[in-house]
UniProtKB/TrEMBL annotation:
This is ABC transporter permease. InterPro entries: CHP02185_IM (IPR011733). Keywords: Membrane, Transmembrane, Transmembrane helix. The chain crosses the membrane at residues 12-34, 40-57, 117-139, 159-181. It comes from Candidatus Enterococcus willemsii. The keyword tRNA-binding does not apply. The keyword Protein biosynthesis does not apply. The lineage of its organism: Bacteria, Bacillati, Bacillota, Bacilli, Lactobacillales.
Amino acid sequence: MKKLKMQELIFTGVYTAIYFLLVSIVMVVLKVAVPVFDSLLLPAASALFSGIIYLLMLQKVPRFGGISVMGGVFGLLFLVTGHFPMSFVPSFVCAILADFLQYNWKINEKIRTTVTYIIFSFGLTGPLLPMWFMKNAYVDSLIRRGKDADYINYVFEPITQIGFIICVVSVIVCSIAGIYIGRKLLAKHFQTKR
């Protein structure tokens, strides 16, 4: 039993590292391709390509904990890398909720996994949500960090009502597409039924 738990911990670390690497690559590509809207599109673009990682995590760590750790790592990164103080909350909440539902919600497995992946994917909206819902506090935190008005205007350019709708809808759509692609890849390369 101890060996199994150690293996699960190792798999969690490996898939968390792969997820981090993939999100980092997506972030760099978006910064070059769409510099103003990169942060707005990051959660959706990451969800599109991370479905396989999520499914592999479920396959190798079939119990509560793995999803929470994977999302929680990003929460910690947001906390220690100078993001707005509340930016870490969605990462933790979405990851723990997805983890809990994945192993306690008694519905069709494919539907459950798709829904939990959508929830998990919203964890990357952590740095964005305070910009819509706590704008004044966010601006004050940027000023305290020495950012000028031009930088603040640049950061808030895509933070509109339409931008919010685009962010939410794109995360849902790309999560569904990402989990679909992930299932196809698993069926082809890992011979799994998930």
